[in-house]
Amino acid sequence: MSPNETSRTAGGGRPRLAEAFTPSRIGMVVLAVVTLVFLFENTREVRIRLLVPEVSTPLYPALLATALLGACGSYAAARGRK
User: Fold this and answer.
1) Cα 17 from Cα 78, distance rounded (Å)
2) Mapping DSSP to helix (H, G, I), strand (E, B) and coil, where does residue 33 land?
3) Contact status, residue 11 vs residue 5, Cβ threshold 8 Å
4) 57 and 43 in contact (C-beta within 8 Å)?
5) What are φ and ψ of residue 54, in 5° steps?
6) Is residue 82 pLDDT above 80, yes or no?
7) Residue 30: what pLDDT?
8) CA distance 52 to 23
9) What percentage of the chain's residues is helix, strand, coil (to nearest 5)?
10) 31-71, pLDDT tens digit by residue?
């Protein structure tokens, strides 16, 4: 057997379709799409007050920032459990 054949049979080749689309990956993609639709449907202006300053901005950047902070916190918590 040549080294190329060995790496292909040992899992070094392209992943199969079933391995690429696991239920957790599909769920994450669906969640990301639903989150993006929700964000971009909420475009009205809102006033946000953080301690002292008050900022007037569309709602979607505030929602996006909150979602990213939540995702970072979730990622950090998951990394801490390992």
Assistant:
1) 26
2) helix
3) no
4) no
5) -120, 130
6) no
7) 94
8) 44
9) 70, 10, 20
10) 889 988 988 898 899 998 888 889 898 998 888 888 899 98
